## 1
Amino acid sequence: MLFEPVSTELSFEHDGDELVGDLVRPPTPGPYPAVVFVEGSGPGGRDLGEWPTRLAAAGFASLAYDKPGSGASTGDWTRQRLTDRAEETLAAVRALRQHPDVRADAVALIGHSQGGWVAPLAASRSDTVAAVVCVSGPGVGVLAQEEYRLRHQLPAEGFTEADVEQALTLLHEQIRRVRSGDDPVRVHAAQAPWHTAPWYTTLAGTTPPSIAFLAGIADHDPTTALRSLTCPLLAIYGAEDLLVPVRESARVVATILREAGHDDHEIVVFPGADHNLRVGTARAPGFDELVVTWLHRRLYHR
């Protein structure tokens, strides 16, 4: 038999925006457990490569959609906060739960990077999320993660300690000025002497909209959401991740969940893997199998 997943466009509404994505499901009769992909930073999009096909082959439906203002979706993701993204994620869950090919009691979230903050936050606000998988999701707050990223990513790319300190200065200045009421356009213009610096593009805020977005989420702390989480959680990290403090994140997540009495969580670190869970050009060996097996146990046996 030729395996060919069925892909159909699915749209839903949130906060006046129409979000458009692809629902990919197995070619066999449903209903199936399903996942919503919660993307990381930036504009994002529904093209997640081979992942939807891999999940369909394992018996899962999945939904990946364009962020507001990206692809076919209306709106503007730079005007969101992480709480907005969490509510949008729950709107996607509701859309999936209403689909006849999806089991309403078995919809999970897979959040990557920034989505690793958003997915637990969404799950902590609703009992409709059956499980959460966080891939490279920071266990620390936004500002701490950005500071860590600049201190590790820039030297790895050949930049000097002076470059790192200047980048950190700009980061803190952006957040401080916007929080105090300054226009992000003015903040961006004031940093014009650094716009041509080779390291400038590594900042999270390089345009007025992205500076505004960064300042708006900079005080997010994942602790509250993790303490309130009741559904199963799988947190996955790459040991060579330069963007996220892996050891601290794993320790913080484990400590918070243990102290909260959360009895179904697993934290896995893949040796040699980067932020995208790749070793070289390939996915970390065992990563796909881990996610599929873990989801199968939590969703198929509900």
Note: Residues 24 and 66 are 14 Å apart (CA to CA).
## 2
Amino acid sequence: MVPLIERAVQTHQLTEDELLFLLQSPQADGPLFAAADRVRRHYVGDEVHLRALIEFSNICPNQCLYCGLRAPNTRLARYRLTPQQIVALAQKAVQYGYKTVVLQGGEDPFFTVEVWTPILQQIKALGLVITLSLGERPSEDYRALKQAGADRYLLRIETTDKALYEKYNPGMCFENRLRCLRDLKALEYETGTGVLVGLPGQTLRSLARDILYFKELDADMVGLGPFIPNPDTPLQDAPAPQLAPALKVMALTRLLLPDINIPATTAMETVAPDGRIQALQSGANVVMPNITEGEARLNYALYPGKACAGESPTRCRGCLENKLRAIGRSVSQGSGWHTRKL
């Protein structure tokens, strides 16, 4: 097992069966996490890139069975920030010291390209790198958004198991998801994707194929986390989430794509109080603190009990910087471009 991990460290290659073997082996956890941490340090260093997250709307027409924002959820108080509020939060991100903003929301039909264009232009004028997470769009929308100032785009594949994807994303097309990711790469976005780990019916072989897909796509960023059941969704009775499998998928992803950006996600911190720190010590190099304010901060309820939901943006950043210092890591003063983009 250890020679297999060391070969992956050197070659950044593993077969599907080798990935499956490591995913199946609890005794691989320690050596695997340590190896991923070494590879992370060698390729992207000890600096952690902080990206300010703005959750601009929890309105979504989709019916994804795992997501608290799903349209049939009538218990959720819906909100939509105005363009002026979004720009104002981006201005605060600059004051807080962030170099990148991440604009994330449900696939709210209000936010057309025409609405986004002046927002992105104003944010770009602040000197910020812009990451979008707006879901599936036509290729011409992605092109127009990039021309307006967007630099990065996050679109999780969620699972590369087509049957599982279409089961949990009713009304959505797996091939269209793949098309969107191909379009983003072709348009030279810094492209991020990722999966949920622990979906009911998901197999370890499926997760191995997910990791190989990240490499096939040549992803610039991979975000993943444990699936956390939401009581307001059809998957409310799914098994309790576990951190270790998500850490394992993340660590293997670091071995195969050594120079990409990998966030320590809020879901990891929600499952375990030190989840983000564990992730940062197992291959991760990015954290996305939430700077959304007020009720919107509480109502972007993908899953229950979201870590840090009740904290102010300033307190959240200060707490995070203290935690990073405690493990010998520092906050990057750069924008965190994927190293192959330098």
Note: The domain at 2-332 is CATH 3.20.20.70 (TIM Barrel).
## 3
Amino acid sequence: MDQTHCILVGAPVDSGKRRAGCLMGPDAYRVAGLPEQLTALGHSVEDRGNLSPETPALPEHPHIHDLAANVGWTRTLAHAARQAAAEGLPIFLGGDHALSLGSVAGMAGHAAEEGRPLFLLWLDAHSDFNTPKSTETGHLHGTPVAYVTGQPGFDDFPPLAAPIPTDRVAMIGLRSVDPAERALLAKTDIALTDMRAIDEHGIAGPLAAFLDKVRAANGLLHVSLDVDFLDPGLAPAVGTTVPGGAGFREAHLVMELLHDSGCLAALDLVELNPFLDERGRTASVMVDLVASLLGRRIFDRPTRSYA
């Protein structure tokens, strides 16, 4: 297996929603052994620690929660993404999903500099396609895909260097989409795969079709993995649980297919809230998935005792 230079970027973003706890996520991944797992697979690992956001001077918004912090994180992470992508594989340790406002935007800018298209795979129970104008909660962790695809309404955010065309976006695992998002999504050609489609036809088909598009375009692939892509019985440490998510075998199949594609250019690990976890179980599951994504095969899976 080819060695990858993995660059861990801690993004303790906790401003995308009102429920606190995701700021502990980056260190939980470290404690769960992510660097050691990657090293054991033959990769080199550089941990750049946890970032701190810029602090733009913005007035408090009457509806949007913590607008200034989210804008600051977007600027900081976009810069960090472009810098890290030029040197290796950025793995953004979150932090809530608002971190993807910056990580994906930065990767899109990097891809444009490389003269290659960026594709986005959104593994999530939610589509996160609200805008600051459509969101009912005012929580910006539900807006990243709308932002990075250039939807209107993000006036306070940094202008995008390279908006991602919606036909380069796929969402897999959907099972909770707001009415406003549904209306906006209907106007796009984003590839949408909900859990009913997965139950009826399996998860490999839609993923393979999307990866074929990435390879045909010589594209770079940014994968954004939300804890709530998984079933809460497998991964309980998330504040936005939705029953009926991906199980252990489905999730590892996705990771192995992504590895086989050779397209991975960046990874987000988001919405882990260690305060809600059970003895670190969710962090361990997520680290296990990253190991599959970076090359561990099913035959190499260790036997574990939880006694």
Note: Residues 102 and 149 are 12 Å apart (CA to CA).
